[in-house]
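ok so i was messing around last nite and threw this chain in just to see what happens. nothing serious, just curious
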Amino acid sequence: MIVSHPHPTLDSIEEPARQHATYFGLIRQAMSHEDFEFLATRAPVRLVRRAHQERQRIALLYIENLRADFQRLLRLASVITVLSPEIAASHEFERLRLSIRFSWRYRIVLSGTLPPATC
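result:
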C-alpha cells in the first residue's frame, strides 16, 4: 500500500515511476483468450484452471502496482507544479481529469466488468 506524504521527498520522486507499465504486453498476452485456448489444448483441465487463477491473481497485483506507479507520477507532477509557476490552470485540470479517469478504470477492472484482455 502506498503511503502518501503531504510534501513529496526527493526519495519518493526518484523511485522508478514507470517500472510496471513496461510489462503490459506480457500481462495482456498471459490473459488473452488465445493463450488460454493454447494451454487448454495441451494441458489437463485442472492445470488450466490453476493457471487461470494464478494469472488472474498476478494480473490484479499488476494492476495494483500500476496504480502505485500512477500515484508516484501524480506526486511528481505536484512537485513540478510547485516549482514551476508557468504551469497553467489547464494543466492542473488535465491532471485532475486523468486522475479521475484512471481511478474510474481501475475500479472497473477490479470489479471484473471488463474482459481480461481489454484495453
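not much to say yet. The helical segments are 10-14, 24-30, 33-42, 45-83, 89-111.
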